[in-house]
Amino acid sequence: MLPKTNRGLGKDEIDAVFTKSATSKNEYFTVLKKEVEGETNPRFAILVSKKLAKRAVDRNRMKRLVFDQIQKELATYKPGHYVVLIKKSFEQKRPLP
To answer: What is the pTM of this model?
Structure first.
């Protein structure tokens, strides 16, 4: 699990990332990044739509998988706020029980 200092953006912070951010996309994710002055650590929020996974257990599993991968590569991220949007193809690649 990521340290508390690297996870958990509030609603206002997530909204700010959506309004003004750099976007990066691939087959499984859309990553939005906003540089924030005074921020010393990269902070992450992972969003999974209820359309993608109805059950909270499934959404939480997806988030854990992504958080684990982020933790392995944490040193490569610059300070700022990141929002990761999981796409439908992610669930198709790693089917849930």
So the answer is: 0.84
